[in-house]
Amino acid sequence: MKPVLVDADTVHRTLPFATLIDDLDAAHREQPAEIGRILLEKGDNGCLLLPAWQDGRALGAKLVTSFPGNGARGRPTVQGVYVLFDGCDGRPLAVIDGEALTFRKTAADSALGARYLARPDAHTLLMIGAGDLAPWLIEAHRCVRPDIERVLVWNRTGERAERLATLCGGEAVEDLDPALAEADIISSATGSLSPLIRGALLRKGAHVDLVGGFTPRMRECDDETVQRGSVFVDAPWSTVGIAGDLVQPMESGAIDEQAIRGDLFDLATGRISGRSSLDEITVFKNGGGAHLDLMTAMSLMQRMQETA
After folding, report:
1. Phi and psi dihedrals of 52, rounded to 5?
2. 93 and 301 in contact (C-beta within 8 Å)?
3. What is the mean pLDDT of residues 277-289?
4. Which of 4, 5, 24, 138 has a CA positioned 20 to 30 A from the CA of residue 151?
5. Distance of alpha carbon 250 from alpha carbon 229, whole angstroms
6. CB neighbours (10 Å) of residue 308?
7. What's the mean pLDDT in 242-258?
């Protein structure tokens, strides 16, 4: 039996965020998959191999490239494929559009963090970065916080911020600092090598969603952000020792590993609580590990079978 080829339109149509976020939430109450991670870098460009194995159920691997300069060439920054196999006999089940799977998985991961950590009455979302992932992050955050009324968009290139703001019914801003002080939720998806988010400017009760930095050199927030905020991660194996937003302040002594209060498995199972007060600042590092790609691929196949 040949594997099913699943294109991008099918991924997006089959996995509305309300469905996928619930499925990821439930999957975090199961035994975690065994995962691996191989990163190759050439300058600013990168290639990731992300395998994961849920024993007796499914295994899969994503091959994904990140070429930040592709925007100037009119091509997507992130491209790839995902291959899903049967966990009992190893049969290839599906070859899935990797870009669409990554967009859905990454945005749903951040939204699940916000479900547990953002203020229930959050009404202003600041999107930092206007790349290919940004519209999906905005949609996913709105899914879990439907009271969001304002969406502010900041990007180094103002023209891209304007385009995204028009697309999502938001407002492009030229000055980042005042927007940081206004926002209830700050979602950042950039390839920045130096902090954009200044912790001193965060309002009480803000939730910071760090998405873009996936190497030790990349960084989106400063030391004060992780010192003022209660820090959570999606999983330690995809963030600690990997993401610059944690690696760099740990190396400088600004925080230690004990500053990380927990992960999505802890939150979903109730082993730890999320936000403890309306004034608490929370910080969520989205590492996007291979286990999340497998969870998303399994959700996709289940939903496709239900609608077949």
Report:
1. -150, 150
2. yes
3. 96
4. 24
5. 15
6. 5
7. 96
Q: Which two tokens stand for residue 84?
A: 């899903």
More confident of the two residues 56 and 125: 125
Q: Bigger pLDDT: 38 or 144?
A: 144
Please report which confidence band the pLDDT of residue 17 belongs to, taking 50, 70 and 90 as the band edges: very high
Q: Name the DSSP letter for residue 197.
A: B
Across-strand partners of 61?
Answer: 51, 83
DSSP 24-67: HHHHTTSPPPEE--EEEEETTEEEEEEEEEETTTEEEEEEEEE-
Query: What pLDDT score was predicted for residue 307?
Result: 83
Quick one: pLDDT at residue 16?
A: 98
Phi, psi of 3 (to 5 degrees): -65, 150
Tell me 236's DSSP state.
G
**Can you give the pLDDT at residue 214?**
87
Helices H, strands E: what count in the chain?
10, 15
Residue 88, CA distances (Å) to 23, 251, 296 in order: 22, 42, 19
Pairing between strand 230-233 and 282-285? parallel
The pLDDT score that the predictor gives to residue 74 is 85
Please identify, in words, the CATH class of the domain defined by 4-102+291-307: alpha beta
The predicted structure's pLDDT at residue 68: 85
Q: CA 103 to CA 98: how far, in whole Å?
A: 9
Q: How confident is the model at residue 253 (pLDDT cuts 50, 70, 90)?
A: very high
What is the topology classification, in CATH, of domain 119-288?
A: Rossmann fold (3.40.50)
**CA 103 – CA 135 distance, rounded (Å):** 9
Domain spans in the chain, listed from the N-terminal domain onward:
4-102+291-307, 119-288
Q: Residue 283 CA to chain centroid, in angstroms?
A: 13
